[in-house]
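User: Protein folding is very new to me. Would you mind checking the protein record under this note? It all follows right here:
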Amino acid sequence: MIVISNPIAIANEISLIHSLFEAGLALFHVRKPDFSEIEMAQFVHQIKMDYRKNLVLHSHHELADEFGINRIHFSERERNNGIGNNFQKKIISTSTHAIEDFNALDTTFEYAFLSPVFKSISKENYLPEIDLFEALKLRTNFKTKVIGLGGIQADNITETLQNGFDDIALLGTIWNNENLLKQFEICQKIVLTCSP
């Protein structure tokens, strides 16, 4: 189970992130689209060294080596513009919004988000145009893990994992919750019960 950062800065964010890691979070995607390189460096610098191997950078990829981060994420646009050779030794992920795009990914990508599965919790008017459970029946790429994203919360995790997704990523269900740690633990427990 993956958690994606709140796109904007929030109160006590670093201590909340540390709490998620302490509760067993495996991967934390740092997606702060409006952060400058300096702001991103300051943000990552506050995260304990022990957890940096669990971070995935969405932007300012050049900071990865400086902070000992081995994972980077490319948006669809970045992927389509070409990745270059600078990141061959990194674990790379990307975003997709159609099964055709997911199927066309090469083996460079360890996993890819496929979204939105459901109506987004965090993005207004961001809803599925097609049924991704049906679309996944056309999956031909089994080298790249497919991660469900968009509107995923405790009451639809099982459905998502039973209909072809290898894992899930959470954003709104965590950050829009008053007790995000409890929400994370509930979701994590459901994911673990669905694991083979």
Remarks:
- The beta strands are 2-4, 27-30, 55-57, 71-74, 91-96, 109-114, 145-148, 167-170.
- The radius of gyration is 16 Å.
- The chain has a mean pLDDT of 93.
- The chain has one domain: 2-194.
